[in-house]
């Protein structure tokens, strides 16, 4: 169909497709966006400049970030910008998935229908897939507005990128254990994905309770604001264990943290340079000066560390808000488990710890 540009946020259901795109499409023509709304904006700009069709890929949870530009920019009642959406269907009804995906899975197709975006559930039969591509092409030629492919689990065959070298000595799990041990009197808010799973397993291994930890299982990019809302309303020290992809997704939240300036707030960004839980697609976190941004918006103290001693020293800073970038290598244990408590149980346990 003449597609020459790709943008989006990687998804575990699309990791093989995203890996193939990364490996075969020129870097300038595949931009891993900080969030899905930005990807729709990038795709729109590409079409305006070239007249060609772009692709936007995302997890279905990312439809929340993309809804505004899809409806107020790309929609046929506004600028009528054609693009192909490829959407991973986490939480598909009847398919077991994590709790944060269940509701989104139920409403994915209904949401597309409500938005007036035609779609098909991508077939894993290649002949049927080709027929679906014809339907997509006909829509793009006739209507010139977005068309979506909804992708089920295990639709694509495996495609792996070559392993990249990374000389940072600490793993994310090692860093989180140091943080948890050094600040055992604090309340923790951990970001979506591997970080929360690792914090949970560290507590399990040490026989500790989970009552001080809010394990953010969904809403990527919002852990820092959850932590801020807690910090402004308790005297306890509040630690946000964030990820580089999550920080980038809603970086404006850093400005709010700095301006509100809670002295009991510690914002820790674990920086491995990739979206680790969805296939290891790169972020831009190692191409920019995140600590410089933290200083410019007004965090009281800012550190960048890459070893255990420097991390422990930074964690000893008492006057916040503190921002700590922790450089770690990518990857996680293959046998990493998942929290056994439900999200509601997790929330209620933390509220009891805070004293609500």
Q: Quote the distance from N terminus to C terminus.
A: 57 Å
The domain count comes to 2
The CATH architecture term of the largest domain is 3-Layer(aba) Sandwich
Query: Which stretches are poorly predicted, pLDDT < 50 over at least 5 residues?
Result: none
Helical fraction equals 40-55%
The CATH first-level class of the largest domain comes to Alpha Beta
Category from helices, strands and their pairing: alpha/beta
- H-E string: EHEHEHEHEHEHEHEHEHHEEEHEHEH
The percentage of residues in β strands lies in 15-25%
The helix count comes to: 13
Widest sheet: strand ordering: 2-1-3-4-6-5
What is the name of the CATH superfamily of the largest domain?
Thiamin diphosphate (ThDP)-binding fold, Pyr/PP domains
Residue-averaged pLDDT: 95
Please give the number of β-strands: 14
Here the CATH topology of the largest domain equals: Rossmann fold
Globular, elongated, flat, extended or rod-shaped: what is the shape? globular
């Amino acid at each position: 169909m003449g597609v020459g540009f790709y943008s989006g946020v990687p998804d575990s259901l699309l990791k093989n497709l995203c890996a193939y795109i990364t490996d075969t499409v020129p870097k300038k023509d595949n931009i891993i966006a900080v969030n899905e709304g930005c990807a729709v904006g990038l795709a729109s700009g590409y079409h305006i400049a070239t007249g060609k069709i772009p692709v936007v890929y995302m997890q279905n949870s990312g439809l929340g970030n993309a809804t505004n530009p899809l409806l107020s920019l790309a929609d046929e009642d506004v600028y009528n910008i054609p693009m192909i959406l490829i959407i991973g269907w986490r939480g598909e009804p009847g398919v077991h998935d994590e709790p944060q995906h269940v509701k989104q899975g139920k409403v994915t197709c209904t949401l597309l229908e409500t938005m007036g975006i035609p779609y098909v559930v991508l077939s894993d039969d290649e002949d049927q897939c080709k027929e679906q591509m014809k339907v997509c092409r006909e829509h793009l030629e006739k209507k010139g507005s977005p068309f979506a492919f909804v992708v089920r689990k295990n639709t694509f065959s495996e495609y792996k990128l070559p392993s990249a070298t990374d000389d940072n000595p600490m793993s994310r799990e090692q860093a989180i254990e140091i943080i948890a041990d050094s600040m055992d009197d604090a309340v923790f808010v951990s970001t979506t994905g591997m970080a929360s799973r690792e914090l949970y397993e560290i507590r399990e291994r040490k026989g500790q309770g989970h009552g001080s930890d809010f394990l953010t299982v969904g809403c990527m990019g919002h852990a820092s604001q959850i932590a801020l809302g807690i910090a402004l309303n308790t005297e306890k020290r509040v630690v946000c264990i964030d990820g580089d992809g999550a920080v980038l997704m809603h970086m404006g939240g850093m400005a709010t943290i700095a301006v509100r300036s809670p002295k009991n707030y510690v914002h820790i960004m674990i920086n491995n340079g990739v979206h680790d839980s969805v296939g290891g697609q790169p972020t831009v976190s190692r191409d920019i000066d995140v600590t410089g941004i933290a200083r410019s918006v007004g965090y009281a103290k800012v550190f960048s560390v890459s070893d255990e001693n420097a991390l422990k020293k930074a964690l000893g800073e008492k006057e916040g808000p503190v921002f700590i970038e922790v450089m770690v290598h990518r990857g996680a244990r293959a046998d990493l488990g998942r929290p056994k408590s439900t999200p509601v149980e997790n929330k209620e346990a933390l509220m009891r710890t805070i004293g609500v």
